[in-house]
Specification:
The longest helix is centred in the middle third of the chain and has 19 residues. This protein has ten helices and eight strands. It is of the alpha/beta class and 276 residues long.
Length: 276
């Protein structure tokens, strides 16, 4: 059984135990008995609906791109991040394989990355982050990062905002590295201009965190008339497996699509057959 904050391995998107699990989310005051009870929220199985929707989903290769969001050294490298291993290594390997294969298909690959100057790291944090910092508490169930910002012991040319080296960038990739504040891939960046120049409207999305930066890209994309497909094997959350799974469910039920890595390949290859 999965519970909020539990240190478990990331469940696969279609894991049977996920469908039967429940999340103990919040303590509530029982007005009748006066005691504290745990409210249990069960995940509703909507995979039959997802399967039908995904069956009817088709790609236009000329209008499809791959976007990788925030797979930074600081997020998932075991020397920097408290993200559980070997889950992190598996997610990086899955994503590297997916990006390489998509490059082979001829799809453009875009990396959207946060890059902050030291002064921005020190003084430009979100208000909530500053409040949490004062308490000395850590929101993520995985604990504090192993290294702080701009660690002086980091090897030259390799620091917290870098893309995990397994992911590239390849010479053909596009880099958006002006993301400064918040979870938006659009705010403070020229991503929208690049999208228009490429003439794409559909994105196979990979990255971290499923529940904020990746999910925000999908939501803000939907508001712009763009399609986003999360590739479940290539997304993760440093905020906990519960929020990761919630984000996948939220995506599939409301404003986008979720495919496994293999399902994504199948959609791409079906699209390529249609071109011929």
């Amino acid at each position: 059984m999965l519970t909020a904050g539990a240190k478990t391995d990331e469940c696969e998107w279609r894991a049977s135990d996920l469908l039967l699990s429940s999340w103990k989310l919040i303590k509530i005051q029982n007005n009748e008995s006066g005691g504290n009870n745990m409210q249990t929220v069960k995940m509703i199985d909507r995979f039959e609906v997802f399967d039908q929707i995904n069956k009817d989903l088709s790609l236009d290769m000329s209008k499809t791109a791959v976007i990788q969001i925030d797979m930074h050294v600081r997020q998932i490298d075991p020397e920097w991040s408290a993200f559980p291993q070997p889950i992190g290594a598996k997610k990086v390997a899955n994503t590297a394989r997916f990006l390489n294969r998509c490059r082979g298909y001829g799809l453009p690959v875009i990396h959207v990355m946060v890059y902050k100057r030291p002064v921005e790291e020190a003084n430009g944090s979100q208000p909530r982050r500053e409040t949490v910092k004062k308490t000395g508490m850590i929101s993520t169930p995985y604990g504090a990062p192993k290294k702080g910002p701009y660690d002086p012991g980091a090897k030259e040319g390799y620091f917290q905002w870098d893309i995990m080296p397994e992911l590239g960038p390849a010479k053909s990739d596009y880099i958006i590295n002006t993301k400064r504040q918040g979870t938006s891939s659009y705010f403070s960046t020229d991503l929208e201009y690049l999208i228009q120049a490429l003439g794409v409207d559909t994105f196979l999305c990979v990255g971290i965190n499923t529940n904020n930066c990746v999910g925000t890209f999908a939501i803000q994309g939907a508001d712009r008339g763009l399609n986003t497909i999360m590739v479940s094997d290539c997304v993760a959350s440093t905020h906990g497996n519960d929020l990761h799974q919630f984000a996948l469910q939220n995506m599939a039920r409301t404003f986008g699509f979720v495919l496994t890595e293999q399902e994504a390949y199948q959609k791409i290859e079906e699209s390529m057959k249609n071109i011929k």
